[in-house]
Write a structure and sequence with these properties.
Rhopdopsin 7-helix transmembrane proteins; mainly alpha; globular
Length: 211
């Protein structure tokens, strides 16, 4: 069976495996009875891992899929990324804002995801994924800056650093920078993104729900 982009497939799968292991570790905290904020971040990492596994499959076995299968993989990928941003922002909100304001903001975050999900039914361009993902990540940074300035929460440096590294990784990917003919911009992105995921994991594990 011919593999079209073996290095990209392998690094994508490694990213997915690394991320799902960290997601499970978050979920198992306190016997699976962790803070809602931590559980939501566990769900976010799980969705991220799914997107990575799908990306690796698409890069590695593209020649063996029908057009329908390719479209199905892509749609599942964009929805997985959308869910990841939804869970990340929701989890951070749980650790920052108390009810009743939290319920209102969670409703707005859910509405944002539903609009994105409806739009992506008939659209495939990756720019729309960025339009949904980037504001969510900026939201995480703003919420964490607030919690750090007000309560000096230890999660903030980790989560903010994770978002910054994640954006840096995306910049490398979009630049097309290639280290070697068998290690391109996508491969480098996956490696850098693993560092970002670890930082996000460390920060998420320190979150506490606001009562």
């Amino acid at each position: 069976m011919q593999i079209t982009e073996p290095t990209t497939m392998i690094t994508d799968y490694l990213l997915g495996l690394f991320t799902i292991v960290l997601a499970l570790r978050l979920f198992k905290r306190n016997g699976g009875q962790a803070e809602n904020s931590i559980r939501l971040w566990s769900a976010a990492l799980t969705a991220t891992a799914i997107a990575a596994f799908l990306g690796g499959t698409s890069h590695g076995f593209a020649l063996h899929f029908s057009d329908f299968a390719k479209a199905a993989i892509w749609k599942t990928t964009v929805y997985s990324i959308g869910l990841a941003s939804f869970f990340m922002l929701s989890g951070t909100l749980f650790a920052t804002v108390a009810n009743p304001l939290r319920k209102l903001l969670l409703g707005l975050i859910l509405l944002k995801f539903l609009v994105y999900a409806g739009w992506m039914v008939s659209h495939d361009e990756f720019k729309y994924v960025i339009f949904d993902y980037a504001p969510a990540m900026f939201g995480v940074v703003l919420l964490q800056l607030y919690t750090y300035s007000k309560w000096k929460h230890k999660s903030a440096p980790w989560l903010i650093s994770g978002v910054v590294i994640s954006f840096a990784a995306a910049g490398v990917q979009m630049s097309g920078f290639t280290l070697h003919q068998h290690f391109n911009h996508n491969d480098l992105y996956h490696v850098i993104q693993m560092g970002a995921i670890y930082l996000l994991y460390r920060g998420a594990g320190l979150l506490k729900d606001r009562s």
